């Protein structure tokens, strides 16, 4: 059990580079494109414990919950994060502009 706890703690503290995440997002979307009119800009990991990702999309309110789950499962398949909660925040580019002011 101690080994499992140590492994989960490592997973929670994992930080992924934005460049790698963007390449991953592009591949993931190509495999299973979202419905018409939705365009993803980029993804970045903004925190650990729990791993938190901001994913920028033109119409975040139009994203179906199943597509959000698809992206979360794809992240887990590619990078692990076994045994830990994960937070995905789907934001618009306007949110990015507001944060930079």
Topology of helices and strands:
Blueprint lengths: L1 H11 L5 H14 L8 E8 L4 E6 L7 H15 L7 E5 L1 H8 L1
Parallel strand pairs: 2-3
Antiparallel strand pairs: 1-2
What does this 3D model show about the protein?
- There is one protein chain.
- This protein has 101 residues and is of the alpha+beta class.
- The chain has a single domain (2-100), classed as GMP Synthetase, Chain A, domain 3 (2-Layer Sandwich).
- It has four helices and three strands; from the N terminus they run ααββαβα.
- A three-stranded mixed beta sheet has the order 1-2-3.
- Strand 2 (52-57), helix 3 and strand 3 (87-91) form a beta-alpha-beta unit.
- The longest helix is centred in the last third of the chain and has 15 residues, at 65-79.
- The radius of gyration is 14 Å and the shape is globular.
- 10% of the residues are buried.
- The model has no long low-confidence stretch (mean pLDDT 92).
